[in-house]
């Protein structure tokens, strides 16, 4: 694609100025439309060093309202960012609905640089490409406009610009060793860039090649392509997205009504096993930290099933400096205006640390599905999107432990009644809990579908039989230890 790049016919100077003026004015209007339609726009600027990305971006945003766009310069990942999943630092910066985000540099630069410097093996490169394609697709599936621009100049033109920068004491600092290395190895870089662009050129997030020899012409090309795609995106906002077939290995799992709930422990058995497994988990935490292995524990379950007490027994075994519990409620406005997984990417642990989620991303296919907080197309797509999300975490090296805390309907009623009649526990029961109980059968159907479609080999579900809370707590500790030991 890059080698065969055919330059568009450059207009005359007079026409260029006329079209530029019109395009700049039109972008200001389109920004208002973007805000009204709540369309999030992510624009990626890539290309050769000294191709003029920064100066062209500066001209494009000059006539935009600065309240509704941000620019992120994506340099090499910091040591702190390297302790997070590969796509973490990009996902957490995605724009809110109605706003623009410009990335000066991106995941392309990170992957191609790593491959050129032999820091990524061919197999690692392929995995990164899969992650990127999934990342870009899940954004566009969830209503984002993603545009990727590559600014193209020749080896001769790049060398001329670099020499010009080096020849001026005021711009010499802008030329780095990597810029000179790239020009010296232009053909090798061209081969890798071309391969990357071909590998990630998707219909929903295509690449746009910009002839960047003339900076005004480059600006006009980018502006006109941007305006055209905004119009298309606005027209497509209400269209459903095709559902993808699940490609991840699934394991069989019983339906909820098939799970016996008669398991229990005596107080003596409980005290003995609780002490044993908490001590063991405490020791394993030190090994996890030393080997920089992150742990993600996800809790879902019926209201009053005992999630809180279960979490408390795990947390009390851990060093508080190495874990965080995330109680997940209804999304805040900033969270609601972004991809539904954004707030979970923001809460991922660093390597060697543990994140415990009290309710999770599975709300998309339960409460959001049943209460009408998202469309049918949204929650049907979510099974695959969640499997992809968890695969990213698994490939990063995380231990992923997902618990469904199961009780029967009579047990829930008894616990609801106790809470209602005990003053110090009344804060635990709400009108919403009673309303959800009335939809028990609908929720059970949705939960069974969720378990069947997301019980992957790399992130399986573990059912905690919680009619007896003591049994469920011990089983959670034992299961967590087994999964950690398996990873170690």
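^ Assign residues to that structure.
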């Amino acid at each position: 694609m890059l080698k065969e790049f055919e330059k568009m016919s450059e207009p005359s100077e007079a026409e260029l100025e006329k079209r530029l003026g019109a395009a700049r004015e039109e972008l200001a209007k389109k920004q208002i439309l973007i805000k009204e339609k709540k369309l999030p726009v992510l624009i990626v600027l890539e290309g050769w060093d000294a191709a003029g990305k920064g100066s062209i971006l500066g001209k494009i945003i000059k006539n935009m309202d600065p309240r509704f766009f941000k620019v992120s310069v994506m340099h090499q990942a910091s040591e702190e960012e390297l302790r997070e999943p590969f796509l973490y630092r990009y996902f957490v910066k995605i724009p809110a609905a109605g706003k623009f985000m410009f990335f000066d540099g991106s995941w392309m630069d990170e992957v191609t640089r790593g491959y050129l410097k032999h820091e990524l093996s061919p197999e690692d490169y392929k995995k990164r490409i899969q992650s990127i394609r999934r990342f870009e697709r899940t954004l566009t599936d969830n209503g984002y406009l993603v545009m990727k621009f590559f600014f193209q100049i020749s080896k001769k033109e790049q060398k001329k610009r670099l020499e010009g920068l080096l020849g001026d004491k005021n711009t010499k600092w802008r030329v780095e060793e990597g810029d000179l290395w790239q020009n010296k190895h232009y053909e090798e870089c061209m081969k890798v860039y071309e391969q990357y662009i071909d590998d990630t050129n998707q219909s929903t997030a295509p690449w746009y090649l910009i002839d960047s020899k003339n900076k005004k012409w480059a600006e006009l090309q980018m502006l006109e392509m941007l305006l055209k795609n905004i119009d298309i995106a606005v027209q497509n906002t209400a269209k459903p997205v095709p559902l993808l077939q699940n490609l991840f290995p699934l394991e069989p799992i019983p339906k909820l009504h098939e799970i016996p709930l008669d398991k229990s422990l005596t107080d003596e058995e409980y005290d003995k096993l609780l002490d044993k497994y908490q001590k063991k988990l405490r020791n394993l935490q030190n090994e996890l930290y030393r080997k920089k292995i992150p742990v993600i524990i996800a809790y879902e379950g019926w209201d009053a099933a005992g999630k809180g007490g279960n979490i408390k027994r795990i947390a009390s075994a851990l060093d508080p400096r190495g874990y965080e519990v995330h109680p997940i409620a209804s999304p805040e406005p900033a969270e609601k205006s972004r991809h539904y997984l954004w707030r979970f990417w923001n809460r991922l642990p660093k390597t060697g640390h543990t994140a415990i989620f009290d309710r999770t991303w599975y709300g998309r296919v339960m409460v959001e599905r049943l209460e009408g907080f998202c469309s049918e197309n949204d929650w049907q797509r979510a099974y695959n999107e969640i499997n992809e999300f968890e695969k990213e975490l698994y490939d990063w090296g995380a231990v992923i432990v997902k618990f469904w805390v199961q009780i029967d309907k009579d047990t829930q009623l008894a616990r609801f009644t106790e809470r209602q009649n005990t003053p110090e526990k009344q804060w635990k029961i709400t009108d919403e809990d009673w309303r959800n109980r009335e939809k028990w059968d609908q929720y059970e159907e949705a939960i069974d579908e969720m378990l069947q479609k997301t019980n992957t080999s790399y992130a399986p579900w573990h059912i905690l039989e919680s009619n007896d809370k003591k049994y469920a707590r011990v089983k959670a500790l034992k299961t967590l230890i087994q999964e950690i030991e398996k990873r170690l």
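The chain has a mean pLDDT of 95.
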